[in-house]
Design a protein that fits this description.
Helix content is 54%, strand content 19%. It contains 4 helices and 3 strands, in the order αββααβα. Its main location: cytoplasm.
Length: 117
């Protein structure tokens, strides 16, 4: 399978999961979630879905639990929408790069203020 096909499938899954979380998941535990990227295996049998969660630690934990319990629903919905022989097995992963970036910005601003800049 070509790299282009894998990239197209990754982008499709990212867009569809974003839409499903936004408008179709009815779990009240799920707060603000951003799908940051999807990494599909070369054979498209599995896909890692990276998510960024907003809120304090308790809110993130509750959102994560809600998302984990909706994994079967997400895969079923992707299966209905994608034209492939197999629906990729989905796994959810936290993408903490946004949190990391925000923390670095915070530290840089603090240093700048301490230097009187």
């Amino acid at each position: 399978m070509g790299q282009l096909r894998v990239e197209k499938v990754q982008e499709f899954i990212k867009q569809e999961i974003s839409q499903i979380i936004l408008s179709e998941l009815k779990d009240p535990r799920i707060g603000f979630v951003t799908v940051t990227r999807v990494e599909a295996s070369g054979d498209l049998r599995s896909a890692k879905v990276y998510l960024s969660l907003m809120g304090n630690e308790d809110q993130k934990l509750v959102t994560w639990q809600g998302l984990q319990s909706s994994l079967g629903f997400l895969r079923t919905e992707i299966g209905k929408r994608i034209r492939m022989r197999f629906t990729p097995e989905l796994s959810l992963h936290l993408d903490e790069s946004l949190d990391h970036s925000a923390r670095i910005q915070e530290l840089l601003l603090k240093i700048k203020q301490e230097e009187g800049g």
